[in-house]
Amino acid sequence: MKATLRSFLLLVFFPIAFPSIASSLLIDPQPLVFLSGGISASLSHSLTVPIDVVKTRQQQDPRFKGQEDLIENTKTIVEEDGILKLFSGSLPTLTGYFLQGSLKYGFYDAFKPLTSHLTEENVVNLLIAAGLAELIGTTVLTPLEASRIKQVASSDLSFVEALSQPSFESLQPCLLKMLPYTMVQLSTYEVMRSSQVPQVPAALISAVLSSLASQPGDALLSYSTRDEGFSVFEGVKDLGLDGLFGGTKARLLQMVVIVSVQLLVNDSIRAALGLGVVGV
């Protein structure tokens, strides 16, 4: 955890502390871009913690297999574990996604000038920039995301206990989830906003596409926390098509809220701080 914190501080504050070096590396030294991303990501993910709890249980608990009724599954969890169970994992969600959002949005802006001439297709260049930014963000997020899933799966596991267990075992499945999610989310939204599509429709379309693109990775991430010898091949084989898309309805609702709120809040903060909105 200390190494993760040191990495985060270095990645975020390097452009601030050494702006001349950052500029020579074509890194945009605007710390407020990192702050805006962190606030919007932590807020949007925290709003949907109860939905995420139900979705994760649908993926992990055999009793919920094939049951996509969000309301009925929510009632079952409340009856068995109490209403507070719906808010389990809130602390790692808030903390993890503040860090991840800071790095994701901050470095996406920083990498866009670097990737803008790699190919003749702007969409491809944006996908590469988003992927590189998320690679950094997910590395920091991984131990906190794993602890969140363990808290949701266990009835009495505390945040500290969950985080004290091996942290980076789920880095591979985390990347399988987060890379397609962020690459599709950011590139879709930017291209649509550049094409004069209004903010809300652009955010909603980005939400749906990024949710579907990252659904198999999300299922594999949940699977990895209960299988110590996890491998992608074995995970896909064991889950099958139904398992990979288990909890899709609950997650789609969750992601529409998360992505829409995140993109709109981020744009609002950027506009208020004079940073300019995405794609305009």
Describe, in plain words, how this protein is organized in 3D.
The longest helix has 32 residues, at 122-153. The protein contains twelve helices and no strands. The protein has a single domain (52-272), classed as Mitochondrial carrier fold. Residues 1-5 and 11-29 have low confidence and may be disordered. The chain is 77% helix and 0% strand. It is mainly α. The chain has helices at 2-17, 19-24, 31-47, 49-60, 70-81, 90-115, 122-153, 159-164, 171-194, 199-224, 232-244, 248-272.
> What class do helices, strands and sheet pairing give?
mainly alpha
Low-confidence stretches: 1-5, 11-29
Distance separating the two termini: 38 Å
Q: Please work out how many helical segments DSSP would assign.
A: 12
Mean pLDDT: 81
| CATH homologous superfamily caption | Mitochondrial carrier domain
The percentage of residues in β strands lies in under 5%
Could you please say which CATH topology applies here? Mitochondrial carrier fold
Pfam families: Mito_carr (PF00153)
Membrane topology: Multi-pass membrane protein
GO biological process, one term: mitochondrial phosphate ion transmembrane transport
GO molecular function, one term: phosphate transmembrane transporter activity
